[in-house]
């Protein structure tokens, strides 16, 4: 089974595509769309509020999950937030979310594979220039496996 794969350049683009997919669950990788890798608590909280404001406009969405492999957590926000998520290996925390779903992230090798394992669509967010070396290397690995895992939405 191949999974839907799309590209997005910003939050507005992501929200439009989530709406077109009629997703009920949306899983966001935190870095870099919600908050940059080395951002402050304030930028994380602001990013979560910005994303929730945009996604709340979509009538089909029932669950929004923020998933990250970092240890940061939001302050005072009541949403599902998985710190130290272990993407793409751990899928149990996502199993009770309603379907269909979509994962939005910058890495095919983690976020994209998680989407495939869950049977969700994947929207790859193109991060801004100047990303750290680790994510750059992961992106290169993801480009190798992308054609094997994904197909474009019709």
Alpha-carbon Rg, integer = 14 Å
Order of strands across the biggest sheet?
A: 4-3-2-5-6-1-7
Given as residue ranges, the uncertain stretches (5+ residues, pLDDT < 50) are none
Overall mean pLDDT score?
A: 85
> What is the domain total for the residues?
1
Main structural class: alpha/beta
Can you walk me through this structure?
This protein is an alpha/beta fold. The protein has one domain: Rossmann fold. It is 34% helix and 20% strand. The chain is built from four helices and seven strands; from the N terminus they run βαβαβββαβαβ. Strands 4-3-2-5-6-1-7 form a seven-stranded parallel β-sheet, with helices on both faces. Strand 5, helix 3 (108-118) and strand 6 (121-125) form a beta-alpha-beta unit. The protein is globular and about 35 Å long. It starts with a strand and ends with a strand. The mean pLDDT is 85.
């Amino acid at each position: 089974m191949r999974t839907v794969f799309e590209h997005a350049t910003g939050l507005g683009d992501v929200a439009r595509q989530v709406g077109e997919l009629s997703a009920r669950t949306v899983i966001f990788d935190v870095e870099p769309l919600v908050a940059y890798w080395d951002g402050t608590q304030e930028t994380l909280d602001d990013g979560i509020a910005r994303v929730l404001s945009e996604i709340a406009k979509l009538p089909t969405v029932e669950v929004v999950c923020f998933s990250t492999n970092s240890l940061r957590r939001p302050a005072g926000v009541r949403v599902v937030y998985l710190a130290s998520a272990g993407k793409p290996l751990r899928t149990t925390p996502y199993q009770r979310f309603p379907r269909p779903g979509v994962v939005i992230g910058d890495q095919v090798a983690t976020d994209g594979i998680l989407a495939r394992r869950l049977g969700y669509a994947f929207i790859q967010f193109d991060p801004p220039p100047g990303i750290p070396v680790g994510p750059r290397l992961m992106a290169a690995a993801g480009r190798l496996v992308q054609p094997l895992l994904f197909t474009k939405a019709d």
